[in-house]
Amino acid sequence: MGRAEAGVGARTNWAPALATYFLDNGLEVVLSPERSSPTIGVGVFYRAGFRLEPEGRTGFAHLFEHLMFQGTSKVPKPHFGNLINSAGGLLNGFTRHDYTAYFEVLPSSALEMACYLEGDRMRFLDINEETLRNQVDVVKEEVRVNVLNQPYGGFSWLWLSQYAYSTFPNNHNYYGEFSDLEAATVDDAQEFYRTWYGPGNATLVLVGDFDESVARELVQRHLGPVESRERPHHPVLEEPLPSRRREFHHTDPLAPTPQVAVGYPTAPFGHQDHLPLALAARLLTDGASSRLQRALVQERQLLLHIGGGPHYPIGDSFEFAGPALFTFEATPRPGVSTDAAVLALDEELAKLADQGPSDAELERARRRELSAYHANNDSRLGRLRELGIMAAVHRAPQLVDELPERFSRVTPEDVARSVRSWLRPETSSVLHWECSGRKGAGR
Amino acid sequence: MSGPRQDSVLAAEVPTPHTVPPLRIEGVSRAQLENGVDLMVVRRPSVPRLEFRLTVPAGASLGPSGAVSELLAMGLPLGTATMDQAELSERIQDLGGSLQVHQDHDSLVVHAAALSEAEEDLYQLLAGVVQAPAFPADDLATERAKLLEGLRMARATPHFPASEALQQAVYGNHPYGRPEPGDTAVRRTGRKALLDFHHQSFSPWAAQITVVGAVEPRRTVARLRRAFGAWSGPKRVARAPRVRALPGGEMLFIERPESVQTVVMSARSGPSHGHPDHIPLTLATAVLGGGFTSRMMNNLREDKGYTYSPHARLENHLQDGLATATMDVRNEVTGAAYAELVYELSRLCTSEVPPDELETTKSYLAGVRVIMLQTQAGLASSLAQIRVHGLDHHYLERYSKQLPSTTAAEVLLAARRYLAPTAMTSVMVGDPGSREGLEALGRLRVRRPTRVW
Predict the structure, then answer these.
(1) Does the pTM of the predicted model rise above 0.90?
(2) What value of ipTM does the predicted structure carry?
(3) Domains of chain A and CATH, by start
(4) Pick from A107, A257, A374: which is nearest to B370 by CB?
(5) Hey, are the CB atoms on A145 and B366 less than 8 Å from each other?
(6) CA distances from A102 to A66, A96, A274, B297, B328 (A)
(7) CA angle B429, B433, B434 (to 5 degrees)
(8) Which residue in chain B is spatially nearest to A153 when comparing CA positions?
């Protein structure tokens, strides 16, 4: 539609203010004031995720996330949640491969309380047998509801990496084997807390309706006194790329029809192909006009659904500090085999690698990214999440506001090259998700 | 609104805020087009985008069948006489935009967004989608296959059959209780049925458009008039009939062999927006199972460890509000967990919520409302929803004033009217072995699995 005249410079004028600094104890602080509504977002991102769990303690990073809501010596259970809710706020946390995030969204009057509570649980967490056993039970129910009692439970995000990688940090069960969860001890949790939850391994993000100088003072008052701890050593995550395609089969007694996932080791952060691959994900799978929807769902009628991208379906291009997969998930039409689906995917990727996208296709992907950037900025949680991940995982929070401009410099040839280099059949892992027919499934 | 409770066990140094700001929705303009389309435009220039919602009374309960309603919603993005679905999607994406169609019992909602510089183009595209969808036969066949697959997958979950059975048990023959479409109905639904239902239900007289974003309301109204002003259609507005409360109290157990958890859902039909009991019941439901500190959360999760995310809510429809409590519990504790739910319901109906707890819940609901209405998307969706009830932004502002003055006695009365454990209808889906603990708690009707995929 010839909209290139709307200059990127003008677009990024919409970026909210941003300031980054470090406290003496090593805590990274990111402040982004934006005062259009009387609300704030407060988040703490710890550089501690699934991939640093020790052997015999699978699922521990996520289990520990639960313990962070179980009270401290000063604010015992269940006062953390009560305080946030009675201030009119929401709270939650999430654990991913290379970080764990805790956040609150609140009316702006609760800024000091939120700073206090985050400082408090960074220092005085009360880890005891009773809450640990209770949360082991809760996490097992979480695994049952999300994985064991659902068809396709955990498909691709939880299972593909267990097949695709060869080393423990990358290929263990991130939700945790029940025997490992049950074996977790108070000592394990205290050790984990000491090692990974110090200020030097964390980023505090404040977004929304506050005055920057007031926020700096409150942060210093409530998080400044947290004792610094030794910086932990992160495990080595890199492993050699496979040299041929590997095929795996997983049987799901609850699934009514087969599906398939294909994972490709993807370009690391900072690589010249990293941003082009984010745009490739958009133009391959986003919406009815995307290449794969159009070719495989509408024209060739091989699939009913296909989705994909870096870290799909639980993350995006910026989620990971080490190796990551660019993943596709597809549902073949009745009568079409998962092999045929993978073959067709290979063909479409080869076309993109050979010819690259058209200018219009690429511009469309960029405009979707730009629109998503603005939509994120409109939400406290959206802005908080983007800044927190970019800071905690890559030490580059300012990049969030530079992305629209950087995407505008990606060329069709960059996209073709990145697809050629990374979305190659020979490095990929294919997971055929099969139904057993045991419960009367099948056609 | 008073601040959070200061318990003696809390360290004195914990700083506590004392106010949830009053809710104000500013920059609202209203207009009606000559053909009846009702417009609400809110200037909220936080980011250079806009959110668009168009609602028509073409919800899941209003079509000639469930299959027709669902396929109508799935069929709208398939393009128009002049544009196929890929081209439509391209042109929307060129605007930095998106288009989805959602459905609830009462309404079909066209849910779109774009960069605000592309406002005029977005309306022009949407006007085509809404007024002259093509439902091309080939693409429709694909959508039917997707719907069949989606239903097969849904039936393999424990939650879908549970909520389907629950709605049937609560609503009986009322259209809100209509079962999900069967495979045969989906296969038989053709283009003609969609065109007929579209013709009947997509009337400008029944359509409401809500726009929130970085827009100039006067210019926006003019643009909407250019796009939607020529739309014509019958002057009729369909709505679901009044809900007649069924006696309730039934316990239905649906067998799902080898299930590793039991899904428990309990519900009762109550009042919707505007009814004097609505705010007290919203509060009662939130005390029971809203947020991180509700009674279900504290008892069933944080004390007993029976379940991961127990919750309760009041789901607002045009003709009623459905109060529901839901949890997934492991097999061995199914009976014990249900007994705790009955206990929590009984407690709500027999003693007043203590002042601290009531204050916490009020602040939580008020705060969540402020947070939800903070984004263009959240504000647009909330306004569109409330407008279906014939209410507007003043209602949302009033709600935030009435909430603090609601008394514990009013909450108790609402709980007695709508959350009495003996009047709740409950559905459990789980392994037959989990029935044992439940049988002592009431008369259980058992349904064996009738339908495999």
Answers:
(1) yes
(2) 0.94
(3) 15-223 (3.30.830.10), 246-435 (3.30.830.10)
(4) A107
(5) no
(6) 10, 12, 27, 19, 24
(7) 50
(8) B157
